[in-house]
Design a protein that fits this description.
This protein has about 240 residues and is mostly beta strands. It contains two helices and 13 strands. The strands form four sheets. Strands 4-1-6-7-9 form a five-stranded antiparallel sheet. One of its GO terms (cellular component) is stereocilium.
Length: about 240
């Protein structure tokens, strides 16, 4: 079995995850000989994307006094087939200081197929100066499944508040479930010209249009400003996996 990764495990890089579930792929993606030189890292990414699910997890901290936390927060997603195991919510895509009072933080969680999402467990390790936490709600969006689920909480995860629990199992609110057309992963290859000044550090985005007039949402190709500086240099070829 071959489990290639070719991705960062770092809070400041990629999607900010420091643990990854890897799926086995055909050995052609791993063996580097003349026969298989055509297999690109992006094609590998497309292969792995087809075997896994990417979830966007939004977490709302309540707007109460001392509602924010400095503790290490984790989440477990439970599906009809399996669960994700403990996932540390380390790098918020929106806020540098995560889990602050009244704020919404966004994280990326990747997992092999766990089936239909049934419940979640969310909690923290009670470490840090300000460790108690008031959790308003969690929203989990799975574009490849075409489903967005809301998990209302509205309770403290604090040893000195409520029932003293610092982790909770939460079920989705059925009436707040949103279903839409599932997203599809595409491999996008961009060729930047070799003329003077051809490169850019701008936020490059893409929109795909179908034959029936339906188009995708606008999707940025870079995840952060560091990638914007790194990609789209003069005379370069950059490949991306984009779910739209």
């Amino acid at each position: 079995y071959y489990f290639p990764c070719q991705r960062w495990l770092a809070v400041e890089e990629d999607d900010g995850q420091i643990a990854r579930e890897l799926v086995p792929v055909d050995e052609a993606f791993v063996k580097k000989d003349t026969e298989n030189d055509g297999q690109s890292p992006a094609t590998l990414g497309l292969e792995q994307k087809a075997k896994s699910t990417t979830y966007t997890v939004k977490v709302k901290t309540g707007d109460k006094k001392n509602a924010g936390t400095d503790a290490n927060v984790f989440i477990i997603l439970y599906g009809s087939k399996d669960d994700t195991g403990i996932v540390s919510l380390k790098a918020s895509k929106i806020n540098k200081n995560k889990f602050e009072r009244g704020k919404v933080d966004e994280f990326t969680v990747e997992s092999v197929d766990i089936g239909d999402l049934k419940k979640i467990k969310i909690g923290h390790d009670n470490k840090g100066n300000s460790n108690g936490w008031f959790l308003e709600w969690v929203e989990i969006d799975a574009p490849s499944l075409g489903q967005c689920l809301k998990f209302p909480c509205g309770r403290w995860l604090d040893k000195s508040e409520d029932d003293g629990a610092i982790e909770r199992i939460i079920f989705p609110a059925v009436l707040q479930t949103v279903e839409y057309i599932p997203f599809v992963p595409y491999e996008i290859t961009v060729y930047t010209s070799d003329i003077f000044g051809a490169g850019t550090d701008a936020d490059v985005f893409i929109v795909l249009y179908g034959s029936d007039g339906i188009c995708t949402q606008q999707k940025s190709l870079c995840l952060n400003k560091r990638e914007q500086r790194m990609f789209f240099e003069r005379n370069s070829v950059n490949q991306f996996i984009v779910e739209v």
